[in-house]
């Protein structure tokens, strides 16, 4: 489970002064569910997810991930999380297997367990053909599979995906979507950020719409449709975000 | 402190470094080929060119002197030059390096000489040009010999003893052991300079690659999402940078030792004949001492390099910061080579300069243990501060996610 409690992040910018990238965001993501964080570019999705993954520290508030506080126990949080985004690249000079093993060891797996786990994942994701190939020689799809294997190697109970399909071709994006769904089916807590409406419609059990660092609304797709009197998610999104978006543009 | 986690990071970084062409070239190939190239290759090449030039008999043009057979005969007797009459364009020929030198003899030289009038002979050369300098040297020596002979004859004609020209001798005698004096001192400073420079250079690329390089490639966020603490991560990276810096230093010292042994073997006859040849060698003890003193310096370099490079967003940006910093490394190392700059208690506290001066002394076999202790402790202290800063830098979000 993930529970964000008044999560906030402020940055200092020399030109623009203080920026509230995330402003008092609270939500709960439950095991066996996919929580979708939907927002435009710069809405605060990445910063929120980076705080949940303890890559960034909150300025105010906190979050509890799988029973561990992100401020107090960041290393335990990271050991419980698999974090995947298009910004999480692979080490070019390691082979696919070496990379997955590296992260397995960093996650505390002993050698016999690591070997079993790596063999299982490489079989499961059909990666044996390129397990000894260096990451800089892999195709986009192979790289994506290696990244997935990297996040899964320690079998984390919580998965965080930050725009994982951004810039990917349709076939690779589909395999990512299938993987996210599989994580949910295995009972993991999944949080997923995107600005692609169709992905949200297909995947998410709960949707949170974020803009200007604020979580404006949340609920299931059916609840959002009922609450905002629109059937189309894009229309709902625009209806919610537009006032704040204009406001932020004027600022 | 988790040694296991630091070890995991270190082993992974080492594996990647050994697969990185730039690291291998900077840390292994350069120190291995640089010294043989500099000492054996370049030294032999220069010696060959100088010898060949000295053995050659270049044409020397004589301007005037038709009425002075005495001095002409003296010039013609000069070994390994060919005296020819000047052509009108002799100056251009020197400028175009067609001939190395010309000698101008004033009209009526011999007669004036007999009349004991002060005269001038001018040698025209192309300053800085090797062939011209060597030919000018030969002519200068021949003319001075001729002048000495003339003076000697005048003294004899006056029925004075020859000693009137040379009332006493001045000699210099070196009482310092040859291996601790003269060129050996410069040689020690040169080794220190090379070790300091290559130690820094060896760590430079990995330090950038492991910090700014990771940011640029997008792997920084990947590693930060793993459970390893940032302190362990930076220490693992630091150990790899230290390894490459020390490997470069060690290979430099070994390569130098072997190169100089080869040079000494090649020039063994010159050295035995005492013909001004200097035996260059590094004993195993001296090499080991230099290496031990390079350790805290390498720690300092590795930490500083990591601190600077981790601030940059890209490889190129990191290079922009580090290259000017290199002057702070090179200048003290060069200063240590200067004559008259000797190790003392104050200089023992100046980072880089202290180790450079000490290495210079270690190579010639001088051990000032109190100064060695000051240098070791002070350099370790600087290194610890630099490492602390590197760890702190890695814990700052504004540095890791600078945009």
Question: What would you note in describing this structure?
Answer:
The complex is a heterodimer of chains A (251) and B (403). Chain A is an alpha/beta fold. Chain A has a 6-stranded mixed beta sheet, sandwiched between helices. In chain A, strands 2-1-4-5 form a 4-stranded antiparallel beta sheet. In chain A, helix 6 links the parallel strand 7 and strand 8. About 2% of the residues of chain B have low confidence. Chain B is mainly alpha-helical and 403 residues long. Chain B has a 4-stranded mixed beta sheet with strand order 2-1-3-4. Chain B has 2 domains: 260 residues, no CATH class; 110 residues, abc type-2 transporter like domain (abc type-2 transporter like fold, 3-Layer(aba) Sandwich). Helices cover 67% and strands 4% of the residues of chain B. Chain B has 16 helices and 4 strands. Chain B is elongated and about 100 Å long. Chains A and B meet through helix 2, strand 6 and helix 3 of A and helix 1 and helix 9 of B.
Produce a short descriptive summary:
Chain A is an alpha/beta fold.
Tell me the radius of gyration of chain A: 19 Å
For CATH, the homologous superfamily of the domain at 1-80 and 193-251 in chain A is named as P-loop containing nucleotide triphosphate hydrolases
Note the main sheet of chain B.
Answer: 4 strands, mixed
Average of the residue pLDDT scores of chain A:
90
Q: Distance between the terminal alpha carbons of chain B, to the nearest Å?
A: 31 Å
How many strand elements of chain A?
10
> How far from one another are the termini of chain A?
36 Å
As a percent range, the share of helical residues of chain A equals: 40-55%
